[in-house]
Design brief:
Elements: E1 9-10, E2 13-14, E3 19-28, E4 37-38, E5 51-58, E6 64-71, E7 83-88, E8 93-94, H1 99-106, E9 116-121, H2 126-131, H3 135-151, H4 159-164, H5 178-181, E10 202-203, H6 206-209, E11 212-218, H7 227-254
Antiparallel strand pairs: 1-2, 3-7, 3-8, 3-9, 4-7, 5-6, 9-11, 10-11
Helix pairs in contact: 3-7
Length: 278
């Protein structure tokens, strides 16, 4: 993040985001040249049978409660992806770069309700990161993506509304835990129920990645996906970027500017006589 970027405007807002890193989850029919597909146990494809996963919750008294969570089956399909997992943008790209082309090239051929679309954002100035560490930013993102869903006429039964409209969603709860999340330097897949639970709408992995992660979005499309699905995902990511820049712009205007003046002490001198010169 040492490169200097010019202060540019994106969709009318001054851009204060340095780089972005995108994670796409789904299934592919074959390996993609130039992309590494990583295994992700949370991505599950099934044509008829529901899948079951275990959710761990740490209770206040220290005990761990384990619940079985049933993942609804996907729509029946004769197409089963050969490779299942996620692709992580590596290295991250400048937000003013051609990240849209990366999305089009990496987009899966198969997605379902278990597939998330995550975006990490880094900032050249630490103050901008700190300004986003507040519950209001989460609510601003939920509102902006709700408006996006309405503009796009996303069907009511789409998984998008389950994530954006469900405050206690298992993978992106609409709660703020940034103060604790920002201190964790390791990736904890069993953090649910802990003070630094990473499965929130906005995650703050500052100690590990120095980024802010938006986890609200799902992957768009069905089996198989189309180029239009990738374009809709690009538009959704752009809303996340624009909302972040807009929030930073507004919060700067609301900050109370204070000026302090320190008045120095008047200089005091003292003379001493010498016994050598009475």
């Amino acid at each position: 993040m040492n490169e200097t970027i010019k202060r540019q405007r994106i969709n009318g807002f001054i851009n204060r985001i340095a780089k972005i890193g995108i994670e796409v989850e789904g299934g592919w029919n074959a390996a993609l040249a130039g992309h590494k597909i990583i295994r992700d146990s949370s991505v599950v494809f099934s044509s008829s049978q529901p899948q079951v996963t275990i959710r761990e919750i740490r209770l206040p008294d220290g005990r761990v409660q384990r619940d079985l969570i049933e993942i609804p089956p996907t729509k029946p399909s004769t197409i089963v992806p050969t490779i299942v997992g996620e692709i992580v943008m590596d290295p991250p790209m400048f937000v003013t770069g051609r990240w849209q082309d990366w999305m089009r090239g990496a987009y899966p051929q198969h997605v379902n309700a278990t597939c998330g679309l995550h975006i990490h954002m880094s900032f050249s100035h630490e103050l901008n990161y700190q300004r986003l560490m507040c519950p209001d930013y989460t609510m601003a993102m939920v509102i902006a993506l709700t408006d996006f869903g309405n503009r796009e006429s996303i069907p009511p039964d789409h998984v998008f509304w389950n994530r954006v409209g469900k405050p206690n969603h298992e993978h992106c709860a609409h709660v703020y835990r940034g103060d604790e999340q920002s201190k964790v330097a390791r990736l904890d897949y069993h953090s649910r129920g802990k003070s630094y639970d990473r499965y929130t709408a906005i995650n703050y992995p500052r100690a590990k990645h120095k980024t802010i992660e938006c986890r609200l979005l799902p992957m768009f499309g069905t089996q198989p996906t189309t180029p239009d699905d990738a374009e809709q995902a690009i538009r959704a990511l752009q809303v996340v970027i624009d909302t972040t820049n807009q929030f930073l712009s507004k919060i700067r205007q609301r900050e109370v500017k204070m000026r302090t003046e320190v008045i120095g002490r008047q200089q005091v001198t003292q003379e001493f006589g010498s016994w050598l010169n009475p």
